[in-house]
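The instructor's notes for this session suggest beginning with a concrete chain rather than abstract definitions. Hand out the sequence below and ask the class to guess, before any prediction is shown, which regions might be ordered.
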Amino acid sequence: MKKITTLFVSIMVSASLLFTASCVQDLNVEPIDPNLETPEDVLNSIEAYQQLLAKCYGGLSVSASEGPDSSPDIDGIDGGYGQYMRALFHLQELPTDEASTCWNDQTIKSLHGLSWTTSDVFVTAMFSRIYYQIGLCNEFIRRGEAAAAEFQGEEMDYMIAQARGLRALSYYHAIDLFGNVPFATEENSVGATGPEQILRYDLYEWLVNEITGENNFRDGLRPLAQTEYGRVSQEFATMLLAKLYLNAEVFTANDPEGRPVISAWQECADESSKIVDNMSLVDDWQWNFSADNNLCPEIIFAVQSDGANIQTYGSTNFVIKGSIVSGNPEWQAALGTNDGWGGLVVTPQFLDYFEGEEGQDQRYLFTDGSEFGEEPHTREILDNSNFASGWCQMKFTNLKHDGSPADNSTSSYPDTDYPIFRAADAYLMLAEAVLNGASGDGQAALDAVRERAGLGSITLTEDAIISERARELYWENMRRQDLIRFGLLTSSTYLWDWKGGSYEGNGVDERYNLYPIPSTEINSNSKLDQNPGY
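After discussion, reveal the predicted structure:
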């Protein structure tokens, strides 16, 4: 069984931490459970601060403090679809060619159809999770910096750096998904009425400064080799910075103040090279997505799962069971689980990226169900309400990478962690940066990813990059961002089944390159302006 030391603790935080009707309107509200002890009662040892930090990590893994869906941390947000990684998948993968769903839960069809509104429950769930996380981290930083002298020192400084890293991760998701967003740090006074809105441009610069500026959090973290698994490391910060530089032109475009677009391709190459030069790719690609991926040396940071200790209806439980038909033990056994929810498929346009290389590319892990005795699924999504329309992924599995059962193989919850950052992404970021004028050996980086997959070299081009990122990183919550960067998400030049709401697919308004600020937030905070077009 995995050693779990950073997650799933029962300590809860009270006033100035949880967000109720509005996720960010009031920084001095009561927790869902009024009987919980206050921070002043429980923060009486360094171990108590460690537990509070564990809650910051745990907020990425679970929706509640006990069990998969006991009493969700956020009042009014379902503990299943509102889990952080599941909510992220909804917004990063379902609007793209990489994933579609036959479920009819509330407004979920609007995600793949790129037709959501300001009141969409799945958009609201992700927004709420982001700001719940930011609130947790702000509170830890605030409490840690104000802790008694006996608790100050190297361990407290290290914990504060981790909280800042986790906060930066959630602000990175905020800038990517929502653009101009509410902004609060540990310096916001408790009881302030709605936080100010920060422009996307300014949030980009703030995030970069958090990692590179004076008193940055990267310097306060430890190298990956010296970091306990599941915690953020200096390499985590490097990957986050590289991702910011990779998307700098998107994040700083259309600035209301007319500032020039920031291009940071050389900076992206420099940061990516720090990973490429020091981290190799493992031979078995699927190890990254198996029940023992906590031992995979390619993973830089992952959100943890554990069949016994970290149970959730989101994260890898969602992507594994969502890809299996219910009531087929053979199919379930092939992915090491005991149930199937039958809802998630890939589009035929995504499968086209593997055309001609299906037998060579070890990343080609899809099924039409026939190998498990099912009537073959159609490759095309002819009916987007029928699970038999569309093929299913077998990339994520609750088996160990050697094919043996997971340690908790009898559990209803997987051991497989959900990768956030891994080395292969740095290789592809370096290649893309070089393609855009940076110096570095981008061709060698691209070739290394393809060689590991079992393929030969291809010329470094835009098409090569967007295609290789699709093949290498599918269902890792990057596709929407990649399509936006290449101008393909909303355009009519690249279509997939049910894009825009029709089987043939169609282009949509450019406003769908960003999600709206939820109407509940706009209505409760007069300082917020809605994103254009909504």
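Then share the key points. The radius of gyration is 22 Å. The longest helix spans residues 121-145.
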